[in-house]
Amino acid sequence: MNRRGSAGPYPHIAKPAHDEPGRHDRVKYFYDSEFIEDGTTIDLISIGVVCEDGREYYAVSTEFDPDRAGQWVRRNVLPKLPSPSSPLWRSRQRIRDDLYKFLVPRPTVRPELWAWVGAYDHVALCQLWGSMVDLPAAMPRYTNELRQHWDQHGRPELPPVPADAHDALADARHNLAKYEAIEAFRRGAATGAR
């Protein structure tokens, strides 16, 4: 309810159950996507996700058009993709279905998404389901911004960029490593052991 006592402009949208404290398990996922974007469209190339419990997911879309890729993507992303004969190449629908099973392995799990400068990554991820209203209730409507988290906590030293940067899974692993470095710095600051 807003201050005027109404349910706001979208009264038909119920509050997701995952917003109720203690009802679900929050699980952190660190992800990255590679994509083609032209100012209008964000076309998913690949996505990598690493869970705090050690599980990993990686897939390449069979539906992107490499001819639409800009020079940067052609030089830094496309050469790092697995062979098109790899089973890691999947339709967007299969990626969506597999990702949902990965992100929500049990009905009580609510994903907590983290990405580095992740606005475009979030759109690329969510567009697998269509529009925002098509997202399953268990899926968050936002991604936690790791870059902002780093800024807010004093910009501690981060792990070096991996040699295989711009591979979505390598970047997702690096995002987890960055998060762990920030959290270690925060714990040290809290105990005075910087």
Q: Strand order within the widest sheet?
A: 4-3-2-1-5-6
| CATH homology superfamily | Ribonuclease H-like superfamily/Ribonuclease H
How many helices? The count is 5
- Inertia-based shape: globular
- Report strand %: 15-25%
Mean pLDDT: 90
EC number: 3.1.13.-
Pfam families: Rv2179c-like (PF16473)
Protein name: 3'-5' exoribonuclease
Cofactor: Mg(2+)
Overview of this structure, please?
This protein has five helices and six strands; from the N terminus they run βββαβαβαβαα. With 194 residues, the protein is of the alpha/beta class. It has one domain (25-192): Nucleotidyltransferase, domain 5 (2-Layer Sandwich), CATH 3.30.420.10. Mean pLDDT is 90; it is low at 1-19. InterPro entries: 3_5_Exoribonuc_actinobac (IPR030853), RNaseH_sf (IPR036397), Rv2179c-like (IPR033390). Keywords: Exonuclease, Hydrolase, Magnesium, Metal-binding, Nuclease. Its cofactor is Mg(2+).
Task: Give keywords.
194 residues; alpha/beta; Nucleotidyltransferase, domain 5; six-stranded mixed β-sheet; 5 helices; 21% strand; disordered N terminus; magnesium ion binding; 3'-5' exonuclease activity; Rv2179c-like; nuclease; metal-binding
Layout of helices and strands:
Layout lengths: L24 E13 L4 E10 L4 E6 L9 H6 L12 E2 L1 H12 L5 E7 L3 H8 L17 E2 H7 L15 H24 L3
Parallel strand pairs: 1-5, 3-4, 5-6
Antiparallel strand pairs: 1-2, 2-3
